[in-house]
Every structure is written in C-alpha cells, then in structure tokens.
Hints:
By secondary structure, the protein is an alpha/beta fold.
Amino acid sequence: MKSLYVHFPFCESKCHYCDFYSIGRERTASADPLIFEDALMREAKMQSHHLDSQIDTIFFGGGTPSMTDPESMRRALAPLNLENRVHAETEWTMEANPSSVDLERLKEYKALGVNRIFMGVQVLRFDLFTMLGWVYSCEVVFMVFDAIFEVGIQNVSVDLLCGVPNQSSADVELAMEELTKYPITHLSCYLLTLPKTHRMFKDLPNESDQLEHLLTIDQFMRGKGFEHYEISNFAKPGHQAQHNLAYWTGKSYLALGPSAHSFDAEKNQRWKNISNLHKYGKFLSEEKSVIEWSETLTPEQRDLEKWMLALRLAEGFPKSWLDNSLRQSRAENLLRAGLLEEIPEVVPMKMRLTPRGFALSDQVISALS
C-alpha cells in the first residue's frame, strides 16, 4: 500500500452536524491523548507490513489532527519508519482548524514532513460561525493563512460549506473572493447535509438555492484558473489532492486510528476499526485486533463502485461502458438534460459530468450504475 491515512479523533468541540468519529475537548479526559499515542504506536507496529517501502501519500485527518503535538505524532508512528518510506514527491497532508495552529506549531509540523495543509474554514460570516458551533473568527482565519505561507507551506487547500441556513450565493462568493486573495492551490466545497431529525434541517436552503450555490462556486473557481476535477473539489493545475485521488481511483490504502477504513485493491477487501477510543486503546494494550468489520467486495459491488468513482471525476468514463441499450438510452437523456457531456478530444472517447451534472450527481450515478 502506497497511501497511509491516520485518524486523530480530538476536536476543540464536537460540531453538531459532523458524522466523523471525534471527541470534543469537553469530553476528553487528560489521559486520552496518552491512551491514543500508545495505542496508535501499537497499531502502527502491528500493521506496518501492509505499507510499501515507498509511500506516495500520507493524510492526517480527524477530528482535528492539529490538536495533537507533532512530537507525539512522531513517537506514535515511529514503528512505520516513515523517514525511510517518504520520498521527494510524497504528498503529506494534515487537516487543521484556524484556532488550533500558530506560526511555531506550523514550523514543527513542516519539520515532521507535512507539506500540504487542508484548512477547515467552512464559512466566513460570524453569525454562521456561531450557528455551526465554530470557535474562531474571520480575523483568526486570515492570521493563520499568513502564518502558513510565512512558514513556507505552499500547497494549501481550503474546506468550505455551502447550503447553510441563512447563507446566500453572495456569501459563498465573498468567502471565495477573500480566500483566493491568498495563493491557495485547492478548494473543497461541500453542501451541508443533515438528517431529518436535526434541529436545523427545516432551515436548510431549498434544492434550487443549493444548486445555485454549487453553480456559483463552479463558475467562480474556474474563473480563477482552478480545475473542477471532482464533484466537490477544485485545484490549480498540478495541485490535485493525490491522497484523495488514490481513494477515487480505487487504489489501496492503510488507515490507522479509531474508526479508520482501509482498502486492499488486490484482494478486494475493506475493513474498519472500532469507533471508540477507549476500546481501541484497551484492545491494542491486550494485543487484540481493533478491526470492527471487514468485507470482500462482490463483483456487483466492484461494478457499482467503478461507476460511482468514475462519475466523481472530470476524467469521466469510457463510452464503451455504455454496454447495453438501457444505459445508452439513459446517457442520451442525460446529454440532452445538460448533465453529461462527451470529451471528444480524448481517445478512446469518454463522457463526464457537466458542472450541473456534478451538482446533481446522485441522479446521474443512479441512472448509469
């Protein structure tokens, strides 16, 4: 496996809309970081044989990895011998929130090997910050971006949310305008999705407004020279997120930490760790497996994933995949609806989603897979 993911579960506070496994500071006992460091070291030792001698991508996600001390990260992952596995082109990404890093801390992460930052900005309006439960301000966001570029980390991505209650397309465009004043190389923008039982569900913008948000983002970012290379992701040429592309192109990856998912493409196997820090620590201290479940994908599952992954990307899929009359008919309907387009300059000819198709991708995937 040439890609490594590590899940750091700690957050300053648990966002009420977040589905990822994380522990807010208010629930974090003083011993938890030590439990995690020891457990992660044990799992790293147990799983290191899965990794190739050369790693192409590393991704520290969470949670908020930037709440973990860089030296603690180094100690926990020592069994992986990363210093001997990374090379000049290895992309080493870390997610961060503006309130959890400063200039000195960023210098330490860069010394560790981090060369790409995914900064979780989400919104740039104070009342929306508050509504979403974030603990920082616009001023803090800009101070942190100044620090990132001062340290010399040039590969910087921003995470934004759209489709937020009381958010307009103008708000989204203003946020992108402010952020692209910095030399960022990548932007990810996701619709806020909530279960029907969530207290804010009734306040979400309607589908028409959500579509307007997504098309505004596409038009603005492409106007700034970014490529819309995946449903929710835009990159300057040559700065696509290589770790995420490993997921989207069906490559193998090893994932460590509570709730982390791994995939072995050669064996068509996927497995998931338990989503509980204390069980994760206890089981590893007893030299037990922390795998909660595993599965071997069936040919039907692989075929479905083939379509789902290909339709995520601007590279699209070969026209030869339309291998029956039903798919061909549906593709023609999607072409007429402006959701699908041909890429005539590619040989063999391919098809891909249009910007509107990206925004309505669930419909297209359902029709063709």
